[in-house]
Design a protein that fits this description.
The chain is α/β, with parallel strands linked by helices. The protein has one domain: Rossmann fold (3-Layer(aba) Sandwich), CATH 3.40.50.450. Helix content is 44%, strand content 17%. It contains six helices and seven strands; from the N terminus they run βαβαββαβαβαβα. A seven-stranded parallel beta sheet has the order 4-3-2-1-5-6-7, sandwiched between helices. Helix 1 runs parallel beside helix 2. The longest helix has 16 residues. The radius of gyration is 15 Å and the shape is globular. The termini are close together.
């Protein structure tokens, strides 16, 4: 079973080294398990680390980047396939369409917006693809607490909390995605 795994993550190089190392570990794991990467197309930050690690292990990388950001985000031109979109809306839709599963590594506003949209689309039954937040070093603790608060205060059903799973390590994340994908296949 080969999955196309969409990874949302930071495009900043100013992040602590342990996040860059985790992105590299994730990319290696994706390729070593025979999966493919779908991501935002950049060559910097966690984006670049995960993509180069997939390629270094002989895996397949599909980048998806808006025309206006191609130069700004420094597109990874060595990607096996680079899809250039008109705008961010088309980028996100293309990534979602190509993916069998989603992982959120640490990131900023863009990562938060992307994973939130995927969770909302799952809630609305636009897809049933597995979604995982890789909560490295407790990076997403506050966000996950906010998800719990949505349910506690009646803004979401408690069952909705499990639309996106939480993991803490790369192997746990990939194991979970493979198990969840088998269930939805």
């Amino acid at each position: 079973m080969s999955l196309a795994i969409c990874v949302y993550c930071a495009s900043s190089n100013r992040v602590p080294k342990h996040y860059l190392n985790a992105a590299r570990e994730l990319g290696e794991g994706i390729a070593q398990r025979g999966h493919r990467l779908v991501y935002g197309g950049g060559k910097v930050g966690l984006m670049g680390e995960v993509a180069r690690a997939v390629q270094a292990q002989g895996g397949h990388v599909t980048g998806v980047i808006p025309e206006a950001l191609r130069d700004l985000e420094l597109a990874l031109e060595s990607a096996d396939k680079m899809i250039v979109t008109r705008d961010m809306y088309e980028r996100k839709a293309t990534m979602a369409r190509l993916a069998d599963a989603f992982i959120a590594l640490p990131g900023g506003f863009g990562t938060l917006e992307e994973i939130s949209e995927i969770i909302a689309h799952r809630l609305l039954n636009f897809h049933a693809k597995p979604c995982v937040i890789l909560n490295l070093n407790g990076f997403y603790n506050a966000l996950l607490a906010q998800f719990d608060r949505f349910a506690a205060e009646g803004f979401a059903d408690a069952a909705h909390r499990h639309l996106c799973h939480e993991t803490r390590t790369v192997p746990e994340t990939l194991d979970l995605l493979e198990r969840l994908h088998v269930k939805t296949s």
